[in-house]
């Protein structure tokens, strides 16, 4: 264990300031000029301010940053000794050049609610820390971005990301000894260029949320990963379960319940480790799987899909395997690999393709003006059971008079059904039709999305089995990489609120 310590607050050089204002006071930092700033009582900041030193919070302060207001901190954001219960809210922005430091050995509780926070870690030279036994909560749509450097959830701490996001742009996330990290209620944890490490006896819970790790994931000694309730967990590199970043073989535990975990590299389930896949969940591995001695993979109800070689010399996989898939969830009733449209004059023609079908009775086409309330528009017979690709076509000869959302519903022979996707058609604006180029695209190369405005839209790539293997936004560029994708057919889904467009991508 590393030596724990508390940063010394140089009182002689600090312009200690107890804010005497209450919520609604025009500018509770009035009188501040330069250097460090301490806020120690209820405070509202209603105009932009730059703090040239550190910003320290203590005495269970409640800080409100009004919407549209930016507080710029050129030093660190930190909590003072025995800081108590701290709250930052209000809809504004907190831009910190240094690091975030939730102080040590004081059991500080720090909550961010409905604010935007960026932390620079001094350009990556520092590490932001939720320190020993402290609590950090990101709530109500908070966006917390670490632009450079690492973020550590230290020994015995608790981190909750609830309907909010923690984005680490270029660094690692460490969930340390006996620490707990919870991502829930549509929250997200994203490591754009780094690794995820869960240390000794820690717990990472992902509940109805998303975790994306561009690098490797090491789940250390007796560390527990729970992915449940329709969550998505994407690992771009290797997943080492029960293998520490220092190279020691330990025992890690993973529960996947009704969720998808996708590994872009290989999975090493080391000595004594256990993985449980239940509730129709899926663990998909692009490359190889090695299940070591005394390691187990239990699949009561779900599927384990492996693109490379399965090595299970000690028979620890508790389900039959065939063609790289283990478990009872390997056969999907209908595998949709394309859903698109064409414009012929004022008429709209929908076309879609399935790779395989099991007991497929028929498709229903529904349409809507707002993407929320749909009405029946047509019906096309299915192909029953087949493993041969099938092409389907339906034409709306009397389309609606404005932008229209078309939804595809698939029904089995026993009456069960599911919705396969949505396309958005503006037949008065043909330029709104999206396309990709090149297509086919070589594995490892990038393709460009062409057509309408992509701002405020997100993308995801699904494999032919329906697994989400990559996702992102168009904020930086309209290009998408196929790095780590093997040859085959994929679906590119582009979303924004009610909008959804699906394009078939062929990787060679």
TrEMBL record:
UniProt-recorded name of the protein: T9SS type A sorting domain-containing protein
InterPro entries in UniProt: Secre_tail
PROSITE patterns, alphabetized: PROKAR_LIPOPROTEIN
Signal peptide location: 1-18
Keywords: Signal
Source organism: Fulvivirga kasyanovii
